[in-house]
Design brief:
Mean pLDDT: 91
Strand order of the largest sheet: 7-8-6-9-10-11
Radius of gyration: 33 Å
Shape: elongated
Distance between the termini: 91 Å
Number of helices: 10
Number of strands: 11
Strand content: 15-25%
Low-confidence stretches: 303-310
């Protein structure tokens, strides 16, 4: 019954004696290693010679032969060791030493085809990665979203804290955007958001900047290793580019085209300051820019918000 079970098994099976002679081998094992002829003709042969002559079928034959020898030498059970063949097939290999009482009388090899399972796992990982990437993007503008910005802030904050380097954050929004939507409609409002997003991306193209749509008509830009002067220069470049694009906005009380206001915060992170503080303080600076006329830049100060009228 055992012999019939082994010979008809869908898994490749071979049992060896302590002298490394083949005691049992089935057709599936022969098919896996492309060993010709009926399996019984290999009973009594040295298995290492069998492996050696058919190892070139494997992706890494030298490693395969080495692990076979070390596994048999250690006599420690191994389960689900992955073996890859040059034809793309992947097998899970088990090694089980066989004892009668305390006497070692041989060992058992089993190879199970897990190619489809590994392919399904790979496809699932790709799908999950794609979903994760989509979850980190803003569907309208194609920019990073607030969730991804929060994650990136933690990464950049930790790095800047360790290296004692400055980190700057720009928070800007479109002036009188509600009035723009009310005047031109939400579809045109979406086009305006995309246009401003593209301008921001083009300005920071060559910079190590992280641009995101923070929410609604608000956008955030992380500038690693950027001091306050560099942050102001970047903010002014974006502000000017938006104004010069000349997107008509008749409902604006500032200018008859679309403009933005920008709040800036620069800090050298430390352990006693939470990362989110840079966002809150840039938001306060943005509020100051709005309060003092819009279409301008405001830089946060611990003592006061220093307004830069542009």
């Amino acid at each position: 019954m055992f012999s019939v079970m082994v010979q008809n098994a869908k898994t490749g099976t071979m049992i060896e004696t302590p002298e490394r002679e083949v005691a049992v081998i089935n057709q599936t094992f022969c098919d896996i290693f492309d060993i010709p002829g009926p399996p019984n003709q290999y009973v009594g042969l040295k298995s290492n010679q069998l492996f050696l002559s058919h190892a070139p079928m494997l992706k890494d034959p030298a490693r395969f032969l080495k692990t076979v020898e070390s596994t048999v030498y250690s006599k420690e059970s191994i389960v689900d060791e992955e073996i890859t063949f040059i034809n793309g097939k992947i097998y899970a290999r088990d090694y089980i030493p066989i004892y009668e009482g305390h006497v070692y009388i041989g060992h058992y090899w089993e190879y199970r085809d897990i190619t489809e399972k590994k392919k399904a796992e790979c496809d699932l990982r790709k799908a999950n990665k794609k979903l994760e990437m989509l979850s980190m993007k803003d569907g309208l503008t194609g920019l990073n979203n607030r969730r991804s910005l929060d994650k990136q802030l933690e990464i950049e904050w930790e790095y800047a804290q360790k290296e004692k380097e400055p980190l700057s954050f720009l928070l800007f929004d479109i002036d009188y955007f509600k009035a723009y939507n009310d005047t031109y409609g939400h579809i045109q409002g979406d086009e305006c958001l995309k246009e401003v997003a593209n301008i921001a991306k083009s300005v920071v193209f060559d910079e190590p900047a992280f641009v995101a749509r923070y929410g609604g008509e608000e956008f955030g830009i992380l500038l690693p290793r950027a001091n306050q002067y560099e942050a102001i220069k970047m903010a002014e470049a974006i502000r000017q580019q938006v104004e010069q694009r000349g997107i008509i906005h008749q409902a604006s009380d500032v200018f008859k085209c679309v403009t933005i206001s920008v709040g800036i915060m620069t800090v050298v992170p430390s352990e006693n300051i939470p990362p989110i503080s840079i966002v809150h303080q840039a938001d306060q600076a943005l509020y100051e820019a709005k309060r003092t006329g819009q279409n301008r830049i405001s830089v946060y100060s611990h003592h006061k918000e220093a307004d830069s009228n542009v």
